[in-house]
Amino acid sequence: MSEPAPVFRRIAIAGNPNTGKSTIFNALTGLRQKVGNYPGVTVEKKTGRFFGSHGEAMELLDLPGSYSLQVRSPDEAVSRDVLLGSVPGTPRPDAIIAVLDASNLDRHLYLVAQFLELGIPVIVALNMVDVAEKRGLVIDLLALKNSLGVPVIPMVASRGQGLIELKQALSRATLQTSDQRAQLPIVLEREVAALSRSLKGHAGSVRAEAMLLLSLEDDRLAAELKGDTALLAEIHAARERLKLSGLDPIAAPVDARYAWVSEVCASCIHRQGEDSHGLTFSDHVDQILTHKLWGWLAFIGMMALMFVCIFVVAKWPMDWITAGKDWLADLVRAHMGAGDLRSLIVDGVIGGVGNVVIFLPQILILFFFLGLLEDSGYMARAAFIMDRMMSRVGLHGKSFVPLLSSFACAIPGIMATRTIENRNDRFVTILVAPLMSCSARLPVYAVMIALLMPASNVWSKAGVMLCMYLIGIVAAFVMAGLFKKTILRGETPMLLLELPPYRAPVVRGIVQRMWERAVIFIRRAGTVILALSIVLWALLHYPKPTTPEPTPSEILSHSIGGRMGHAIEPAIAPLGYDWKIGIGLVASFAAREVFVSTMGQIYDIEDAKAENEDLRTQMRDERRADGTPVFTPLTCLSIMVFYVLAMQCLSTVAIVRRETNSWRWPLFQIGYMTALAWIAAFVVYQGGHLLGFR
Amino acid sequence: MNATTQQILAAVAVIAALLYLILRARKKKDCGGGCDCGPKKPQGK
Prior knowledge:
heterodimer
């Protein structure tokens, strides 16, 4: 085998996340890539080789995306350390390709400001110029090149445009470092120069290192210096001197860089389609949607509208499914004599599965709206307004995506917590994610709301449903705050969030995702829910009473399910539930939507004559021994609150076990959520009674 | 179909459902859970 050609130049490719770094990396290196880990951390090290425009071999290192060299995560620490040349086995790069998103230049230039301070030659790959153009941004490339003092290559990496020019720039015999950089206040510059002399590092990087050390928070500084007390004392003394002269050592360099970025942008970016204040359409909309008060009102308004549509639009398809279910049950009854198998097919299979499938239209509408909000760019705004509340309780900004995913299902939400680097922050998010109302709760809410307010208009119904979702959100935040102050303490890093411009959602994509959801839901109904319904049917029918001609009530009461319901009745009676609801609670521990199918089966057994009455009517007619209705408004509210807060999902338990690698956390989660649900349902039911409600 | 035949067939269906749930739980043990929600792309940034 021939020896690989000696490397002419080692180049690092760096930039903010989502700028197209990996696209350029892949386009340059093709299949000549190597993936490993940086020593001591689980951050991926991706290197590749390519040949310059004169055939010279170059090594390319793909650095993790970062917003600044001010470290907040292990990824960013790796980027900084590689560029400072302090990672064993990874030589300091000869040049940096700084990949910038041309449509977000004002945000992405901050990192370039820091690259220029490093004293390494920089080549700017100005990616996505087509997007910038579409947004009405005209970038004066010559002015940008002069302001930065480095080559600027306009690119559309996804289409391979600009790659040849980039290779040519990298192949030049010498690459110059730029002397353009943010102007620091003189006092700070003096301290940086003094500290640079005490640092032993690469001549080009000591100044940048000195600046970074001066602006580090105290606890991180101590960790960085690893016991170098002399240097620590020198830094503290420098900071004191800076503070005495009225400068904040942490904020001053940041301010100086932002001022420089503003100057550069002002000289080379011209915006078309802006008003006299330089604001785009998105900026105008954001003034309302990210406003402290209007933002929240808009958020709640949109959610309310979503639930109204869920009730209004879903009504027709739900009626069709109900009619289909009844027709199928009648067909079986007409062609089959009475017996256990007929009961299993009619009550267990058609009743059990049908009562869950009825809610498919509502779930699809929920996903349609979530898709609409996500694709239009609104979700990033929702994250922004939520972050204020989240950071107040100590939740990591990166928790938003997992929590948002949990509205669909807690399982992808919990899996998405892997992006949170800090263990405690991640575990807090895992512990509270199932409190967000997932789509499996929708059937329970819908049945209970129909019982609670049969004659009310859709706005009232949507309002109650919105309240349930909000109770879940508030409970998640309160519990997260509690966990962060007790068992999972830690500081909260700030969230850096890009607000993409608003765009028209692609309906085709949303419909495709709805279709995927529908397939998943139907598959689940036809497998797990079907199997659970059959097993439940057996639990609700066997063993049969020995008395001749037992009544349906006696059959249910004598069954294993009935006995389980009776056994837990003392624990749930204070919540306003009878033993039949108890059966539903126990059965739905496997999956929440099973509650609805269980109640359907129970009342089908009990009310054999009214087989074709819908579940809501059967539940409304259900009476206690004293003749009072079982499902009073307070009981319905109490059940809903219980389901908002209770764990009731075996699949989530399994995934938490896997993600935390221990049984301790899922068991703790079941314990705290069940206790919380019980207490909240108790407060609702007993408190309501005390206030005179029924 | 007489009552006894119905009883036997119902029992077979219940055993099959139970077996399905048990086998599914065993199969899913390695990958961590019984989720049918499918992989979901992390949204937004």
